[in-house]
């Protein structure tokens, strides 16, 4: 096994051709099993797996090692509450290297002050270092990510903010999607929509770009501990909204054993509401692979319990979307549900799921 193969290949340009020769001849009838690993996705995909690579066509298999999910991330911190486990996932994105920096003996605040909100910390310049490693124009890509983090989600908005043409901006976005840093979203019922939005998929990047740039002066002057309650702690619940939606979709995909039908597609939906003439959005939409059934889901990461008005709003949005002949309603909540909503589970296709329910290890 050769770990971090890109470093070897960059130091010795002929190594891939040498390996090709050995694989085709000397290793062909041996019992040797060669494994090449690398953290630079662009290099591994282009220089190892790509058509122009001397090693092209000689692999037995390829594996893209994905981050841990919420459940696996939480296992690193057995004494944390369910909310704290979710926060760690929302901060680190489940990347083992980042999790190793965090200590289960420290609070979330202490871990952040020690490992991120310190100019000498390992993770302080991590996004910048990754962009420099993977891309030729890190400053431009930094501007693209910053624009998305500030709420610019359409190509035209991002291009205008960064100061590049739309066509060129699309190429930058495509490269960031290849690296798994951002994602392209369309309404799940209209995958060919010509008006997609772009969101930051990598949770660590999203956290970093949400909190570090705005606190850079406090971090560099060593005043972050006093600033933390106002500039970070008070905003964590809002930040976790999108992370919670991701957790809910992953729960349905991988862990829900009570699904009413085989899954088709999982995503979200947005569009016009003819009743109010305003934009409507549904956090979780699941289509059936066998009929016109579907799941309509809402995700609430807030301190107050969810009441029955949220069910009525989901039903209104489902009417605006149309599409499904038979609907099932899922409500996800960090803080639980009001008894007025619980009573509806007896006579409707309704499921109520808490943060504890989602943590499948219990």
Compact description:
The protein is α/β, with parallel strands linked by helices and 362 residues long. The protein has helices at residues 5-11, 15-24, 41-48, 70-74, 82-92, 96-101, 108-115, 126-134, 138-149, 155-162, 166-178, 203-211, 216-220, 224-231, 236-254, 309-321, 339-342, 355-358; strands spanning 182-185, 197-200, 263-273, 278-288, 293-300, 326-333, 350-354.
Rg over alpha carbons = 23 Å
Q: Architecture of the largest domain in CATH?
A: Orthogonal Bundle
Count of individual beta strands: 7
**What structural class do the secondary elements suggest?**
alpha/beta
Overall mean pLDDT: 93
Which strand order do you get reading across the main beta sheet? 3-4-5-6-7
Q: What overall geometry do the principal axes of the alpha carbons give?
A: globular
Number of domain modules: 3
**Percentage of β-strand residues:** 5-15%
User: Counting H and I runs of at least 4 residues, what is the number of helices?
Assistant: 18
Biggest β-sheet strands, sense, barrel: 5 strands, mixed
* Distance N to C terminus: 37 Å
Q: Please, what is the CATH homologous superfamily of the largest domain? A: Winged helix-like DNA-binding domain superfamily/Winged helix DNA-binding domain
Q: At the first level of CATH, what is the class of the largest domain?
A: Mainly Alpha
At CATH level 3, the topology of the largest domain is Arc Repressor Mutant, subunit A
Helix residue percentage = 40-55%
């Amino acid at each position: 096994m050769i770990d971090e193969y890109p470093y070897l290949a960059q130091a010795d340009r002929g190594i891939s051709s040498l390996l090709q020769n050995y694989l085709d001849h000397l290793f062909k009838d041996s019992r040797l099993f060669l494994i090449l690993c690398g953290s630079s996705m662009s290099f591994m995909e282009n220089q190892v797996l790509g058509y122009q690579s001397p090693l092209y066509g000689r692999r037995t298999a390829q594996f893209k090692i994905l981050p841990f999910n919420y459940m696996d991330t939480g296992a690193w911190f057995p004494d944390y509450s369910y909310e704290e486990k979710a926060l760690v996932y929302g901060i680190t994105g489940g990347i083992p290297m980042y999790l190793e920096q965090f200590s289960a003996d420290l609070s979330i605040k202490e871990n952040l002050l020690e490992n991120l909100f310190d100019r000498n910390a390992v993770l302080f310049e991590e996004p910048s270092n990754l962009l420099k490693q993977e891309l030729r124009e890190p400053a431009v890509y930094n501007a693209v990510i910053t624009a998305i983090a500030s709420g610019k989600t359409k190509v035209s908005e991002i291009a205008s903010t960064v100061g590049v043409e739309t066509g060129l901006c699309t190429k930058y976005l495509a490269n960031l999607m290849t690296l798994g840093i951002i994602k392209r979203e369309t309404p799940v019922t209209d995958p060919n929509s010509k008006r997609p939005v772009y969101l930051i998929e990598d949770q660590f990047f999203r956290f970093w770009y949400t909190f570090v740039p705005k606190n850079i002066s406090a971090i560099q002057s060593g005043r972050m501990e006093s600033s933390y309650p106002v500039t970070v702690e008070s905003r964590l619940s809002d930040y976790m909204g999108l992370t919670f939606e991701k957790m809910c979709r992953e729960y349905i995909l991988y862990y829900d054993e009570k699904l009413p039908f085989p899954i088709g597609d999982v995503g979200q939906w947005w569009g016009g509401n003819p009743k109010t003439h305003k934009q409507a959005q549904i956090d979780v939409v699941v289509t059936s692979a066998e009929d016109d059934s579907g799941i309509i889901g809402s995700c609430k990461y807030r301190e107050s319990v969810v009441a029955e008005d949220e069910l009525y709003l989901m039903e209104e949005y489902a009417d605006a979307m149309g599409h499904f002949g038979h609907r099932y309603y899922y409500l996800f909540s960090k803080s639980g549900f009001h008894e007025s909503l619980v009573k509806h589970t007896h006579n409707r296709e309704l499921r109520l799921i808490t943060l504890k329910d989602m943590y499948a290890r219990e």
